[in-house]
Design brief:
Order of helices and strands: HHEEEEHEHHEEEEH
Number of strands: 9
Strand order of the largest sheet: 5-9-8-7-6
Distance between the termini: 56 Å
Radius of gyration: 18 Å
Strand content: 15-25%
Shape: globular
Number of helices: 6
Oligomer: single chain
Number of domains: 2
Structural class: alpha+beta
């Protein structure tokens, strides 16, 4: 299905939802004909029933794939409690169809960017709201990607014998809130945000 076709389908389905039920199931607010959805350290507004997606405090419209993902979140959410059990992407339903793309767009890019720099990894995560999590590894952080989708990311530094690696984790209930393909895009979005981080310049004396 093309991106345009996926957008038309999501829009048609979204127009028919019960907004207060969707808000309750997804953990977002619905007031004055608008859903407000936090996504990492940003927020977006979706108007209903006439669909319009806007970034809060931004004049720039989000890309079409992100509009689809946000609508899918409201369409998919079924109120299943967050499990607090972490799983790898490959354990999500139907992940074999998208795992290679997920690894390329998210895990491989993060490993190349941060594989030998745990401090920059830490700074990048803190800059978009990450909090430290208790996991093995050289640096591990947790995010609330969407209100009901926690994500985790762990960096393992390399040495002379072992290559560096990154593990990106999802709560085991994530498939109750987004299709598996969309979760791969969510991982890629997180990777892009982290890789784009620029440490603050040194202060002049």
């Amino acid at each position: 299905m093309s991106l345009d076709a996926a957008y038309r389908k999501a829009k048609e389905d979204f127009e028919g939802i019960s907004p207060y039920v969707a808000a309750s199931m997804s953990g977002v607010s619905f007031e004055a004909g608008k859903f407000t959805i936090p996504l990492f350290n940003r927020s977006f507004v979706i108007h209903h029933p006439v669909v319009k997606v806007e970034g809060v405090s931004s004049d720039t419209s989000p890309p079409q794939w992100l509009e689809i993902l946000l609508m899918h979140y409201l369409l998919t959410a079924d109120g299943t409690p967050v499990s607090d059990m972490w799983i790898n992407y490959r354990h999500l339903p139907g992940a074999q169809l998208f795992e290679r793309r997920f690894d390329k767009m998210a895990v491989t890019r993060l490993t190349r960017s941060f594989g030998n720099d745990a401090e920059r990894f830490r700074q990048a995560y803190l800059s978009i709201g990450g909090t430290a999590m208790s996991r093995t590894g050289d640096a591990a952080f947790r995010f609330l990607a969407l209100p009901k989708i926690p994500m985790g990311c762990i960096l393992y530094l390399g040495d002379d014998e072992v290559r560096p690696s990154v593990a990106m984790l999802f709560d085991s209930a994530a498939s109750h809130y987004l299709p598996t393909e969309d979760l791969s895009l969510l991982g890629a979005h997180l990777a892009t945000a982290l890789i784009s981080y620029k440490p603050p310049g040194k202060q002049l004396a």
